[in-house]
Structures are given as structure tokens and as C-alpha cells.
Predict the structure.
Amino acid sequence: MKVGWLVGGLVCLAAAGPATAATFHVAVDGDDGGPGTAGAPWRTLQRAVDAAAPGDVIVVHEGSYAGARIERSGRRRRPITLRAAAGEAVLLDRPGARARHGSVLEVENFEATVHDWAIEGFEIAGAPRSGIDVRVARRITLQRNRVHDSGQTGIFTAFADRVRVLGNESFANGEHGVYASNSGDRPLVRGNLIYGNAAAGVHMNGDASQGGDGVISRARITRNVIFGNGRLGGSGINLDGVERAWITNNLLFDEHASGISLFQGDGAVCSRRNRVLNNTVLVGADGRWAFNMPDPGCIGNRVVNNVLLTAHSFRGSLNVYEPAPAGFVSDHNAVMDRFSVDGGETVVSLAEWRALGHDAASVLASPGELFVDPAGGDFALRCGSPARDAGRRLRAVRRDLAGVRRPQGAGWDVGALEAADDCPE
């Protein structure tokens, strides 16, 4: 099952239609002095977002535009929607005149929390800072946008609760693909294609120095395809000060730093009580560990049903800060014969790792043994793969990355993709 097919299916999952009150239009030949109708559209996004009320939809037609600063709010069941017209190429390639942060689309009001917006369907390129920048906000949905070549981050949030990042493509940005920061709780990052970013693919950082509790709680990072990030450092999924997150059904490959990292840098706590379930992680030869937990205090984390491999010559599947971190569970994974129990300073074998109580039911395997064509981007489990039927039953991941129901065979498969039970006897 090749990556391109997966991405097309994941993006389709993101579409949704809010209730509407009025529909306004923006076009390159419009006039901000007009009524903003289909026949007499406005010229700028800023004119439209300043006029919109709860339930309204703003449709932007083909062409290139400056971005806008959004300071008004919708309502819980009547969000305001800003979207590209269906089937039309709409490029936002520079910040608007009122930008405060050098970002193309900014969602922020210094006097009140901005809430209940949906932003969808745009190409956003070349931002000096971030393509989309959401601060002190809640219930903002960002979906089916293509964000790239930002000076810093593709999609950035700060002190923003219940932000949903759905079916976007974020690539070739100067730092992270998606960055949730500053004590924003319950972010959802689902069905995105995130690749070629200089730092992390998905970065979450509670950052206690900026105020709030310094913790990001109850994040969900699921069904994303993440690859080729981290040439300047930063994992495919990088979690600093994150608790009770669910990291499930993600496919990560060719990562240049670590695959999935739980740690404490700026966050108020070491990332704790997180669930890392049914992910497929393959780190490149210039990378680090497939699963990385190097800092003391990261307690209560569970790592189950994952493929955890690296092509690095020394590093391996799992790196933890001590032999038996409190509450740590790792099992039913597909691994290689290299682990560390001292933050990556030295390596132990699977037998030594198992003697500490870890991965008793896990299997040793290489990419060639596991997948149909890993070099060609086909990460479906091949017939005879040791990952087939080797997983633990987990109600939280009843469907796989592509939406296939588990199990298809006698048991649950290890990794992000459940194999059809179609091998010859």
C-alpha cells in the first residue's frame, strides 16, 4: 500500500460542512467597497474576515492574495468558514497589511479569545514566519491546506485549545511542519502529510516559561504520514511537556533525527502517561532512535504494537533513561536487536532488554521481512511478515492508518497498516 494512495484517502477524511448564515465572495478583480456577493465580490481577505458573523462562509476564488488577521469569532455550532472555492487554485503568498507576526494567516485578538473558525483549501507559501498562526484561541479547524516554504513553521498554535489540524500538507518549512505550543490542550492532528521540514514533523511543547501550566494535555496525533524531517534536529513526532496523548496509526519513515520522542525541554513536566500504539517508524541512516525517551521523569508511557526500526549503525529501537522507568510498558512491537537504558550512551541486546521486563512478546524483524517494498514506499505487510497477527488487541485503534478494521486475520497486526488476510495457504 503506497504512500501516495494513503495520503489521498486521508485528505478526504477531513471534509466537513458547517451550518451557514450568509456566503460572501472574494476575487482578484473584486472591490472592497461592494457587497461581497458572487456578482460583486470583495478584493481582499481582510475585508471579508472583518465582516463575517457566526455561521457565515467566505469563498475565495482563484488567484494570488495577501493573507489576513482574524480577530472576530464564530459560535460553537456556527463557526465562520474561510475557504478556497472548490476546484480553484487559491494561493496566499504573503502576510496581510495587519499581520503582527510575519505569518500569512493570523488568528489572534489581544483583547479576547478567538474561537470557532474553519480555514480550508488554501495553498499558503513563503511566509516569513508561519503559514497559519493561531494564538489564544479555541475550536479552530485547519483542513485541506497546503502549507510550505515558511521561514519557520507551516502550522503554528499557541495557547490554543481544541485546534483540529486535518488533512493538510505541510512541507519544506524552515522549522516544524506542525507546532502546537504553550499549554494548548486537546489538539487533534489527523490525516496530514508532513515531510521535508528542517526540524520536527509534529512538535508539541508546553513551554512553561511562557505562562500557563506548561503542559499540553490530551493531544491526539493519528493517521499521519510523516517523512524526511529533522535534518537540523527534531523528531518526526516530538513531544515536550505532553501528557495523556494518544499517538496512533502514524507512518514515519526516512526521518533524520528520532522517530517519536517523549522528553522534557521547555515543558513543565517530562512527557508522561502517553500511549504510543500501532505506529510504523523507520528512521534513516543519519537518524537516531525509533522511540526516544531520554529524560528522567517521563513516567507512565506505553509503547505497544509498533514497528520501531532505524538504519543507523549504532542506535536502535528504543532508548530510555533508566532500565525500568516508572509505569513504562513496551511490548508486542517489531524491533531490532539494539536498545539503550542510559539515555543512548550504550546499547544492550534484545535479550538484555527483555531481562528488564520489556518486550517479551515482541519480534525481531528487518524492513525487508516486514514490508512489501519499503524502498519503493510500499509499507503494506508482506505475506509471511512477522508483524502479521503479532499485536495486542487494543480498542483505541480498531481501524488502521487507511481506515481498515482490525483484525483482518487471526489477530491484530503490528504497525500502522493492517494486512488483508489474503496470503495463500
Observations:
- The CA atoms of residues 340 and 396 lie 28 Å apart.
- The radius of gyration is 22 Å.
- The mean pLDDT is 95.
